[in-house]
């Protein structure tokens, strides 16, 4: 392990060797995923320490430690309970117990002889602050080991917090086993003491508005923290049994796991180092029981301190779960329904919990059925049928696999891949000549600026690069760089200089980096600044080309740089670098000079020395590469650097040429100087003297001065073959197999996926009836039987739990047992919910206030005309926003109903009032109604009185940047749609009712339809014909209107019962809609003029709420709240396939690329589904949990395509409605006397 000052000598390692090992551990930890929501780790290569012979005992030991894929269970926790020698924390919701330790705990670089154990899931290293200071916050302001910090409660006597110190050999060996399994490459660790803290069946604390005590949901969590210590070294072992982790957040606060050193208070208080295991999402908490860093599901091990020197918390190094050849068990998905726990009596808590003698809490039992042929059970990846544009040829070529744009060439000593004519690269990766190249990646690390004592941390900052290869010009941008370091990073154009070298303009007889080594290599560079001697290390890993044809790179910066004053600019002089080439290794060095231009017009001249090493895997037989000069010179000029303070963006640009190290004869041909004027998508072909020609690159057409993309998919519709979909890309195209098909071994032919039989679907399982049990298909011929909540058994036979036997109700209430549940009812003369009953109904302050204003009269309570009447929420508390109907004014109030100063607004405007449990923001407040949408694509969704947005980054949600785009107080927004042309959002409101719109660039909401509506729900935009379509579930019709609402026409008003979701496909001239009629649900389509109506699906539907259409794949998908499935089909082919099952209560659905996004009423979240992998990959839960309704994608640019209505309204006088073969001209229903001309099916 990292440096250990034990009295026993570890192996034969010296003190300096142990220091190097600690550096390796710190390096590995620093490049790991710091916020482990995704729980993926990567490690640097570091240095091999110790002698190989000393590793054998460790590996032999580990063979017996990592063979089971199943998760930790309650029975496998460290022994706990009174018979294990534990003491119990006092019952309550915020109890703390100080413990004096027999052996100190080492945390970061300090040693502690006292610790503080708290109800709320943590151990403190100093007396903890009040709950308001740390609940929901990570890091805390004091030293904390958070096993699972949250607002927890044991006051009901069921939950307990046990703790003890233990140095028994059996327990220390159990701790050593976990630690040594987590760190397999380190020497065996043998702890000498341990502290065991176990939170058993703890509940979430009830919110203040509902009284003290735990939540009555019945959900309980059990988890454990073991601090295992040597003399000067400590580890934290965290254990989360899957079946005992039943909630992931408390009513008011997010739960957290991690380590916080607290506050450094040497000169001034500032946040000390911390390490987060979870982020701010419930998904990361759920993953604690599902994943690992120690090779055992649900077990997490960390080195948390060494004395006297410490670098950083080090996570375990075994994130993968080993396969068990004797079990084929898939992780059970968490359910949000949980069995109710019985009241555990005190005498039961006195047993030893590792082998419980008392009846355990009721648990859901599962039975795993093994397949008859275990060898064919794995089907996890068969649905991932996306195509890599750089697919490899099937044959092996001297140990390489060539690009599909490459071929295998024979040389005297062997074979190597080479790119075909018209392409360049190393043969394994090839790109077309002349095409601009894009590179994306992340920047991380830690940099100290000048004399500052506080480093600046980078965590996954975006890096984007664009290279115009036919003139060698490279552009690089790095985002989210704070000003404190941004100005000082300006001289480091070398961060992007490697990209310039890779695609430098080639002089005759010389090759740029990509032509020699391709796009997979590592680069290590060291920058030494003069005259101060500051040093910075640049580590870059180039990972090749992704499915979007973009190069990928990860960059890490570590070290110190001299300060460049804020506001200063930097000018970098032209420079040259000498690159020396050998087998699998390239080195280079140079001296860079730069000038700092200060704001007072003065200048400073500085320089730095630069050395770099590039390592790669080459082909030793390639005679073409061996014939290249062993040294080449990169010439860099026109260097431009800039830091944009407002955008926090760092930009570099430079022109690069590769050629003779001695200068040689200067080539004046424009192709070699870059002064040719060819299109950026063209190749410059040199001729005699100064003659040259411009030739459009492959996949483009034109004269070379202007090149346009060739749409191969449109020109040759069958280019991808049967059962495949063609997607056009700039300069190329991509073939993807349709849903239900995958590529055969030739990588080109799409063949139908042979899917195994699902016993749950066809009914050949032996689980109990659906009213008592659930059958869950797990792949192959395997399935799991699980008793439903409220029942107990093995899944094949389930019996009802009589909850009334454990006296769940109030003493003045009667309990009624029902199948799978129970109800409580207060006795006559008592009021309450059955769990709490009292003789009097106590009215709240708001209710009393309201009654006093209303008074009493012969016709019931009525207010005095013009008097303000307060509004109370469902719990009887003051609504945060109060309004005076007569005066037309609204304002915010505190929990006591007192007006908050400065919040009163005039008629027609509404203040943004935070909930009484949410702290008010500090600083100026934005416009109360509109928040302009930032650039890029976003997911928009509706949530009770507002429309929110989540920015998209590729296929990922940027959840920390989610905000409210539009505040619509007192409105119930159901459907939303986005007009990509005018950047407007349209929505339906069933409270008014109305159809409205607003510009997301700033502007007031405007009603476009207010009359003749009953319950408008689904809404869709035709961005080509400039029309809006909607459904009305009470009038049972589908209508169309111009975008401003001036023209309106009913399209369909027959055979509709509950129409909801509606979509448009303007390019092909179709509309699609779903009717959730409970007696006969269906999904239909028609031409956009309402003709040629037909049913697409009607069998096997329940409540089809959400509907979405992907024009790229021609897939229509729907989310069904009745069948709890997501299904898709190609409307033109009729093939219908299930994408997912087991979802909860979906409402809205939208798509973007490979992902589907849907809103879920039960989970109160936006769920992300990978359509190819057929599984949930992410979720976003808004801060305020209410029902979520419509959802749509706001694309940064309109999708490609056009129709007859795109230009001049298709020649129509009024409505132009597209059809597959043309368009129909239609008149609005109120077109009397407007001179309207109708034409049907016109083309």
From TrEMBL:
<dbReference type="GO" id="GO:0030855">
    <property type="term" value="P:epithelial cell differentiation"/>
</dbReference>
<dbReference type="InterPro" id="IPR011042">
    <property type="entry name" value="6-blade_b-propeller_TolB-like"/>
</dbReference>
<dbReference type="InterPro" id="IPR024731">
    <property type="entry name" value="NELL2-like_EGF"/>
</dbReference>
<dbReference type="InterPro" id="IPR000152">
    <property type="entry name" value="EGF-type_Asp/Asn_hydroxyl_site"/>
</dbReference>
<dbReference type="InterPro" id="IPR006605">
    <property type="entry name" value="G2_nidogen/fibulin_G2F"/>
</dbReference>
<dbReference type="GO" id="GO:0005886">
    <property type="term" value="C:plasma membrane"/>
</dbReference>
<feature type="domain" description="EGF-like">
    <location>
        <begin position="800"/>
        <end position="838"/>
    </location>
</feature>
<feature type="repeat" description="LDL-receptor class B">
    <location>
        <begin position="1026"/>
        <end position="1068"/>
    </location>
</feature>
<feature type="disulfide bond">
    <location>
        <begin position="883"/>
        <end position="890"/>
    </location>
</feature>
<keyword id="KW-0130">Cell adhesion</keyword>
<keyword id="KW-0106">Calcium</keyword>
<dbReference type="InterPro" id="IPR001881">
    <property type="entry name" value="EGF-like_Ca-bd_dom"/>
</dbReference>
<keyword id="KW-1015">Disulfide bond</keyword>
<dbReference type="GO" id="GO:0005509">
    <property type="term" value="F:calcium ion binding"/>
</dbReference>
<feature type="domain" description="Nidogen G2 beta-barrel">
    <location>
        <begin position="435"/>
        <end position="668"/>
    </location>
</feature>
<dbReference type="GO" id="GO:0007160">
    <property type="term" value="P:cell-matrix adhesion"/>
</dbReference>
<keyword id="KW-0677">Repeat</keyword>
<dbReference type="InterPro" id="IPR009017">
    <property type="entry name" value="GFP"/>
</dbReference>
<dbReference type="InterPro" id="IPR000716">
    <property type="entry name" value="Thyroglobulin_1"/>
</dbReference>
<keyword id="KW-0084">Basement membrane</keyword>
<dbReference type="GO" id="GO:0060070">
    <property type="term" value="P:canonical Wnt signaling pathway"/>
</dbReference>
<feature type="domain" description="EGF-like">
    <location>
        <begin position="709"/>
        <end position="751"/>
    </location>
</feature>
<keyword id="KW-0964">Secreted</keyword>
<dbReference type="InterPro" id="IPR000742">
    <property type="entry name" value="EGF"/>
</dbReference>
<keyword id="KW-0325">Glycoprotein</keyword>
<dbReference type="Pfam" id="PF07645">
    <property type="entry name" value="EGF_CA"/>
</dbReference>
<feature type="repeat" description="LDL-receptor class B">
    <location>
        <begin position="983"/>
        <end position="1025"/>
    </location>
</feature>
<feature type="domain" description="EGF-like">
    <location>
        <begin position="756"/>
        <end position="799"/>
    </location>
</feature>
<dbReference type="InterPro" id="IPR000033">
    <property type="entry name" value="LDLR_classB_rpt"/>
</dbReference>
<feature type="repeat" description="LDL-receptor class B">
    <location>
        <begin position="1069"/>
        <end position="1113"/>
    </location>
</feature>
<dbReference type="InterPro" id="IPR018097">
    <property type="entry name" value="EGF_Ca-bd_CS"/>
</dbReference>
<protein>
    <submittedName>
        <fullName>Nidogen 1a</fullName>
    </submittedName>
</protein>
<dbReference type="InterPro" id="IPR049883">
    <property type="entry name" value="NOTCH1_EGF-like"/>
</dbReference>
<feature type="domain" description="Thyroglobulin type-1">
    <location>
        <begin position="843"/>
        <end position="913"/>
    </location>
</feature>
<keyword id="KW-0245">EGF-like domain</keyword>
<dbReference type="InterPro" id="IPR036857">
    <property type="entry name" value="Thyroglobulin_1_sf"/>
</dbReference>
<dbReference type="Pfam" id="PF12662">
    <property type="entry name" value="cEGF"/>
</dbReference>
<dbReference type="GO" id="GO:0005604">
    <property type="term" value="C:basement membrane"/>
</dbReference>
<dbReference type="InterPro" id="IPR026823">
    <property type="entry name" value="cEGF"/>
</dbReference>
<dbReference type="GO" id="GO:0042813">
    <property type="term" value="F:Wnt receptor activity"/>
</dbReference>
<keyword id="KW-0732">Signal</keyword>
<dbReference type="Pfam" id="PF06119">
    <property type="entry name" value="NIDO"/>
</dbReference>
